[in-house]
Amino acid sequence: MLQRPRRNRKSEVIRQMVKETHLTAANLIFPLFIVDGQNQKTEVSSMPGIYRYSIDNLLREVESCMNLGLKSFDLFPYIEESLKDKYASESYREGSLYLRAIAEVKRNFPEACVITDVAMDPYNSDGHDGIVENGVILNDETLEVLGKMALAHARMGADIIAPSDMMDGRIGYIRQVLDDNDFQHVSLMSYCAKYASAFYGPFRDALGSAPKAGDKKTYQMDPANQREALIEASLDEQEGADFLMVKPALAYLDVIKLLKDHTDLPIAAYNVSGEYSMIKAAAQKGWLDEQRTIAEVLTSIRRAGATAILSYHSKEVLLNKWI
Ligand code: PBG
How many distinct structural domains can be found in the chain? Predict the structure, then answer.
């Protein structure tokens, strides 16, 4: 045998030398859940190890992440039912929980990268990512709300705005609103190929944001479709996105790879709540080696072509030196 691939695997030093995929703190984005009040830190029951923080505790959590070199955060709010309405007006109200959280994180940690979520669902009494009229999700009317929300985030100091709603035309619309208001420097990370996925279940528990009626299939993509992601990608590129996101990640590695091969923009992948909870549940039962499973999953998402990974594992992998 002239070719013996095992020779390049024979020692740790050689294995490290030929390693093709690297994962560092710089590639990781940590999603954080926030809730109103003081001194709150409540575990999400379907996401062991993940909490909703009031702003005071959020700042402590951000600080401990920063000390680990984890410096990018994506914030999501839990909103009281009484503050929700059909137009998600709480989302851009001055002094709202979310807007205060952005400003506080940026004031205390100016070097952190704060990514903000633009979508109506946490604030919408219908639980959808758009305005609902007679069971229909209105596209163009929703864009106006998204524009107001994005502008409010930019004013609070958001570094990157991430629209997760899947309305048509929202990247171009939001880019225009930001540019018209002198926020040319604020980036857009588009949830570009976002699928109507069962893996979002635990996240909707965390936010109390499940749709009150119907599902999200008229705006989120069909899990059966791959080529359609290319249409979304080319529109987002033309409309001015700075990052393209694929979500979920693990069941959609082919889509990450496809977009990587078709765009020069950086690809982000969202290792979503259900992907996190599956591993936690299996590890708690002793069915999987938690550390190795998590490292393998995150590495596979990078290998598929993701530049950045949004993951609930971000902090624990650095804290425990699992990567
Ligand atoms: C909705 C949104 C969802 C997630 C992020 N933004 C859920 C949904 O579309 O219903 C899910 C993230 C996760 O599961 O971790 N705007």
Answer: 1
Ligand 1 pocket residues where CB is under 6 Å: 117, 119, 121, 129, 164-165, 200, 203-204, 216, 272-273
DSSP 172: H
Give me the mean pLDDT over the 238-244 stretch: 98
ipTM above 0.90, yes or no: yes
Catalytic residue status for 19: no
Asked if the structure places residue 303 within a domain, the reply is no
pLDDT digits over 119-157, tens only? Answer: 999 999 999 999 999 999 999 999 999 999 999 999 999
36-55 per-position pLDDT tens digit: 999 999 999 999 999 999 99
How many CB atoms within 10 Å of residue 6?
7
Domain contains 323: no
> Known binder of ligand: residue 239?
no
The answer to whether residue 41 is catalytic is: no
Which ligand 1 atom is at minimum distance from the Cα of 210? 10
* Residue 269: pLDDT band with limits 50, 70, 90: very high
**Whole-number Å distance between alpha carbons of 295 and 276:** 12
Residue 183's CATH number: 3.20.20.70
Q: Which helix or strand (DSSP H or E) is residue 31 part of?
A: strand 28-34
Q: CA–CA separation, 85 vs 279, rounded Å?
A: 35
Nearest protein CA to atom 6 of ligand 1, as residue:
164
Kindly name the residue from 71, 84, 216, 247 that is annotated as catalytic. Answer: 247
Among candidate residues 199, 179, 177, 175, the one with its CA nearest the CA of residue 189: 175
User: Which atom of ligand 1 has the smallest separation from the CA of 274?
Assistant: 14
